[in-house]
């Protein structure tokens, strides 16, 4: 429908044009993001973690610190992106971690190994994808970024989104509102 969409975690997988690590006959993808995503890249539920991510684009647009605390729960990762996709955040992975059977398996080596990075946040046009869960933190910068991104996309889209305060002032008790509110 041409509306802005933000996919977090599994939502990122649905928005990807291609996914690996899925079960045979698994969920169909919605597509739209020119990227390849690996489902459960970081492993199973027990390997869920939190990490500080360097987010220069978010900090420049929304202010605040240069980092964001990402909550990764059985999270995917973006393996590659097309030319129209902007990488907003990545996560360092020691190169002694190798992708094997949809989990990260460690190789024991005595020497120090350089870090590689996997992509964990992307934007393409009106689509935003994060491999982590910003809604599980008190930091609302990703939410603000998405709302501003959506309203910057042009007249047709910005007229479709109503600010929370505006919605409250025109509240109709007969109508149930879910955010964001589209007219």
Automatic annotation (TrEMBL):
Keywords: Glutamine amidotransferase, Signal. Residues 1-21 form the signal peptide. InterPro entries: Class_I_gatase-like, PdxT/SNO. Coiled coil: none annotated. One of its GO terms (molecular function) is glutaminase activity. GO terms for cellular component: cytosol; glutaminase complex. This is Pyridoxal 5'-phosphate synthase subunit PDX2. It comes from Hibiscus syriacus.
